[in-house]
Amino acid sequence: MSLPPEKASELKQLIHQQLSKMDVHGRIREILAETIREELAPDQQHLSTEDLIKALRRRGIIDDVMKELNFVTDSVEQELPSSPKQLICFDRQSTLKKSDGTRMADSTTMLSISDPIHMVLIKTDIFGETTLVASYFLEWRSVLGSENGVTSLTVELMGVGTESKVSVGILNIKLEMYPPLNQTLSQEVVNTQLALERQKTAEKERLFLVYAKQWWREYLQIRPSHNSRLVKIFAQDENGINRPVCSYVKPLRAGRLLDTPRQAARFVNVLGYERAPVIGGGGKQEQWCTLLAFLCRSKGDCEDHANLLCSLLLGYGLEAFVCVGTKAKGVPHAWVMTCGTDGTITFWESLTGHRYIHKPTNPDEPPVAEQPKPLYPYRTIGCVFNHQMFLGNCQPSDAVETCVFDLNDESKWKPMSEEAIKSVCAPGATTSLPPFPPLCASTIDASVTSNEIEMQLRLLVSEHRKDLGLTTVWEDQLSYLLSPALASYEFERTTSISAGNEEFQDAIRRAVPDGHTFKGFPIHFVYRNARRAFATCLRSPFCEEIICCRGDQVRLAVRVRVFTYPESACAVWIMFACKYRSVL
């Protein structure tokens, strides 16, 4: 038994917010410091896991958490938990059910919960750059058959991508059920259940593979040239495991963190873009990240962005698909498409947030007929898919501009069996499918971060001008007047609507005296490293002209505005400006 998919994400967000509200992490830090200071000898300042758990229990922290977050086994109106992440009540993916704290799921019910605990290891350097080190799925249910509900495991973490066969370290894990189960299961029962699930999963995956091969043979028989089209049925994840592409997409509700589909597109756009590293020459490295790995490192390839955006648009009730094809010069690419109820086809570029309306051209029209010129960068399309459907393009040409996106017309789009897709991609269908995590609220204080970056940039500009033998005079009022422009730029990026420009220009005209010249340069980043941003700005001749401005009565201004999004992603807008008296 499990939570309905449409409820899981919102429930997880509520739990994360509740734990943040209780300041659990802060209380743990206080107890850590107090325990080390008061209870350990000066020559023994190492605090073991047992010492910490005892300290937490003695001070009632764990009891407080469990009173707020627990399990229920009542009617269908009180859904049972859908994943095992209740075992780690401080984990970002906790799916505990809030109740009166008197009941929790029994051991038999918990044995039926097949979701693994997904652990992602991230390395962050001194500049804030993240690297995905390892991704591991932990089978936690062995603890259900352990004595006293406590067990210890040792797992080997393997690398990712091209290093998926290389060990990166050993992780010692201690699992403990809290509150303790009233009745534990025998280890034989647990092992039998796990073996049956693995056997069932293997059989489902085998049957789907047989079906996929047959579908591909039929697709090639339609037209031999189909062999060169980008029809992607399977894709390797970060661990080098082949998964059906449909399993990378699932309706994802953002709760109250994102309000509109366009805001969701902006959120996906500000997540960093990074192609999977390739060792040596050759083509593009194959690596589609699971959602948790993508969110943890806050960057990924175009497929990762497209899968996340498609999942969010599905959550908003749109008919969305991931498109696999090529851009200019035949470069493989993935983007998102939505089909309106009126037949309107809209392309969403997940790397930029841009939207394009598709109007197909008719190759049979006479040359004199005016044909709409496509604005989108896409050239060919091989297939489209979401969590329920997979369709291969079997039109005579795979050029996007001539494609007709009537997905119900099997003469143009060859569908896969929805039942076959459901057998391996539906939630809970197989134990090998990674669960989708909820989106977490940003931990960045936008005002504080904006001020910090702005102060750092002022210092960097002053030092740069000093090296050039120039003095620097900042004008705070002029800096403040730049704020509306930055807000307007972000609003336009999100909604494609320009607003507020008239008021900004009027304010600047009033602030710049007659005979003076005003120059401004806005720029946008998705990171918060002031020194890196400043170096980038100096590479622009327009920005360098402002920063190195010479003249009479030179006044400089800089304004930084950080806009936060879920998962601590952010859009950072910076505007440098100067005003000076024109001297002929």
- Proportion of strand residues: 15-25%
Number of DSSP helical runs: 16
pLDDT averaged over residues: 83
Q: At CATH's second level, what is the architecture of the largest domain?
A: Roll
What structural category do the secondary elements indicate? alpha+beta
Quaternary organization: single chain
Secondary-structure blueprint of this entry?
Layout: H1 5-21, H2 24-38, H3 49-58, H4 61-68, H5 107-111, E1 117-124, E2 130-138, E3 150-158, E4 167-176, H6 187-222, E5 234-236, E6 242-244, H7 261-270, E7 272-273, H8 291-297, E8 299-300, H9 302-315, E9 320-326, E10 332-339, E11 345-348, E12 355-358, E13 380-385, E14 390-393, E15 413-415, H10 418-425, H11 446-467, H12 476-481, H13 483-495, H14 501-511, E16 516-525, H15 530-538, H16 541-547, E17 552-564, E18 570-581
Parallel strand pairs: 7-8
Antiparallel strand pairs: 1-2, 3-4, 5-6, 9-10, 9-13, 10-11, 11-12, 13-14, 14-15, 16-18, 17-18
Provide an overview of this structure.
It is a single chain. The chain has 584 residues and is an alpha+beta fold. The chain has 4 domains: 14-66, no CATH class; 105-187, no CATH class; 198-361 and 372-423, C8orf32 fold; 444-579, 3-Layer(aba) Sandwich (Pathogenesis-related Protein p14a), CATH 3.40.33.10. The chain has helices spanning 5-21, 24-38, 49-58, 61-68, 107-111, 187-222, 261-270, 291-297, 302-315, 418-425, 446-467, 476-481, 483-495, 501-511, 530-538, 541-547; strands spanning 117-124, 130-138, 150-158, 167-176, 234-236, 242-244, 272-273, 299-300, 320-326, 332-339, 345-348, 355-358, 380-385, 390-393, 413-415, 516-525, 552-564, 570-581. A 7-stranded antiparallel β-sheet has the order 12-11-10-9-13-14-15, with helices on one face. A hairpin with a 6-residue loop joins β11 (345-348) and β12. The protein is flat. The relative contact order is 0.09.
